[in-house]
Design a protein that fits this description.
alpha+beta; Immunoglobulin-like; Rossmann fold; 7-stranded mixed beta sheet; 12 helices; 26 strands; membrane; calcium-dependent phospholipid binding; lipoprotein; Copine_C
């Protein structure tokens, strides 16, 4: 088996091995493994069958398979082991009817559980489903070892220097301020940003600084990419100047041939399907490929992603006891927006955190008999901020709603500085940790400059910040914090952030489309790698 990732794609070979039989059968078996993956609707789809290993209780299968690993989502794999009856040994494995074979047990795990193990091996207990074995018998059927090996080719990184000529001016009294966004096109046809350039101010013939695209990120050199050129606007509503759709292989050819590609503008809906070609052209000034360490190399070396969460308890959320409140706990068990964001983000990141002890804070509320706090421990403790597991966060959140008074204003600076302090202490101890802070909020922040200062300072630390906006507030200022929407942040002293560490998404924009997790986590592997490379930290160090 092998896997590849979405924001991060990597080719792996999985070796399946059953150790420690524990089988009730007195004879040797002829086992085969069938692998399934869980779809969005919860159903399992078969994706792969191994060969049959004859006469063995401790088989090692050789057949391998490639599946798509996506960092942004939890992918559940199901492994079912069957004893193939002798009369079917000459039948192709894909033609075998599984209902005619004896089940030897099954096991399941998330794909991320395998890739996050330092040795890339995961041992699973094989169990027999209740309906297929009498309740008086032991359910333990042995163990299944799944081992992953990364393919060398997945480490290739393309470095490109891009320029445009004859861009259209979108500003009334000056030239355009262009920047590029490079997106991959996923199977559904949706474009997901994976890379962007800086803003080139007042320039119709810009040459941007080199961009680095790990070929993992886009699938292969032949996978389609959309390169969009925008004119930067400080309000976050950037004007599309033009776009092209090319693969990395196409871009390499443009460089070799010293040719430019005309940008185009999509035809409005309702008009004919011909795109409007522009005089503006995109050129590839430099194209080279090098081998770089991958996100998964760091995981294999023992690096972790440590999850932290901060929740907005300001009064604008509404009375938690009333159904129209964003903090309302529905007796039916239906999750509110805060709970859903915690669960979906935490569910993905928990596999990359070894002890699953998560710092959790609230802000903008008045704890019992105390002043308004802009960073209080969600568990109610005055000494420690950690809770155990995603369930621990959910329980602490629910408990806090009945033990604090919602207040205000909405300040981010305190929780960002608290998270930065933890990251700084970890860095001082040379720990192999990278921190991810999830901030969930319903309102406009009132300490924008203080927040910018905190973010600029934190950009030098092993820290990324994910912000989910819930409710119907105006989130323009959040867009400013996310450098995807424009320029790098600048502090009150004029210092510019060393890298982009913020990703923001309004919850309402993604409820009926891509999940919050995919939107928020799309850039996280790239942010992790940008930090490691900027400090020249290697996986083996």
């Amino acid at each position: 088996m092998a896997y590849t990732a979405s924001s991060l794609r990597s080719s792996y070979r999985f070796l399946l091995r059953v150790c420690e039989t524990g089988m009730c059968s007195p004879r040797y078996s002829d086992p085969m493994v069938v692998v399934y993956i869980q779809e969005r609707d919860g159903a399992f789809t078969e994706v792969f069958r191994t060969e049959v290993v004859l006469n063995s209780l401790n088989p090692t299968w050789i057949t391998k398979y490639t599946i798509t690993y996506q960092f942004e989502i939890v992918q559940i794999l199901l492994f079912r082991v069957f004893d193939i009856d002798t009369q079917f040994h000459n039948v192709e494995v894909k033609m075998l009817k599984l209902e005619e074979q004896q089940s030897l047990g099954e096991a399941s795990c998330a794909l991320s559980e395998i890739v996050s193990k330092p040795n890339r091996s995961l041992i699973l207990d094989l169990v027999q489903r209740e309906e297929s074995v009498p309740s008086t018998h032991s359910q333990h059927q042995g163990k299944l070892t799944v081992h992953a090996e990364e393919c060398f080719s997945s480490k290739n990184t393309a470095e490109m220097t891009l320029k445009c000529l004859n861009l259209e001016s979108k500003d009334l009294f000056s030239k355009s301020d262009p920047f590029l966004v490079i997106s991959k096109v996923v199977e559904s046809g949706m474009s997901i940003p994976v890379c962007k350039t800086e803003v080139s101010k007042n320039d119709l013939n810009p040459t941007w600084k080199p961009v680095f695209l790990n070929i993992q990120q886009v699938g292969s050199k032949d996978s389609p990419l959309v390169i969009e050129c925008f004119n930067f606007n400080s309000n976050g509503k950037h004007d599309l100047i033009g776009k092209v759709q090319k693969s990395l292989a196409d871009l390499e050819k443009l460089h070799t041939g010293r040719e430019g590609e005309n940008l185009f503008l999509p035809t409005p809906v309702g008009h004919d399907n011909q795109n409007k070609a522009l005089k503006s052209k995109l050129f590839v000034e430099k194209y080279s490929e090098t081998v770089q360490y991958t996100f998964l190399d760091y995981l294999a070396a023992g690096f972790e992603l440590n999850f932290m969460v901060a929740i907005d308890f300001t009064a604008s959320n509404g009375n938690p006891r009333l159904p129209d409140s964003l903090h309302y706990i529905d007796p039916s068990g239906r999750l509110n927006a805060y709970q859903k964001a915690i669960y979906e983000v935490g569910e993905v990141l928990q596999f990359y955190d070894a002890d699953k002890h998560f710092p959790a804070w609230g802000f903008g509320a008045r704890p019992i008999d105390g002043p308004v706090s802009h960073c209080f421990n969600l568990n109610g403790s005055s000494n420690y901020c950690e809770v155990e597991g995603i369930r621990g966060i959910m329980m602490a959140y629910t408990s806090a709603l009945f033990n604090v008074s919602l207040a205000g204003p909405t300040l981010f600076g305190h929780v960002i500085n608290r998270a930065a302090m933890i990251a700084s202490q970890s860095l001082a101890n040379d720990a192999k940790k990278y921190f991810v802070l999830l901030i969930i909020t319903d309102g406009v922040i009132t300490d924008l400059q203080e927040t910018k200062d905190a973010l600029v300072k934190a950009s030098d630390l092993p820290l990324s910040i994910l912000i989910v906006g819930v409710g119907g507030a105006d989130f323009k200022e959040m867009e400013i914090l996310d450098a995807d929407k424009g320029e790098r942040l600048e502090s009150s002293t004029g210092r510019v952030a060393s890298r982009d560490i913020v990703q923001f998404v309004p919850f309402r924009d993604v409820q009926n489309g891509p999940s919050v997790v995919q939107e928020l986590l799309a850039e996280l592997p790239s942010q992790f790698l940008a930090y490691m490379r900027s400090r020249e930290i290697k996986p083996c160090s």
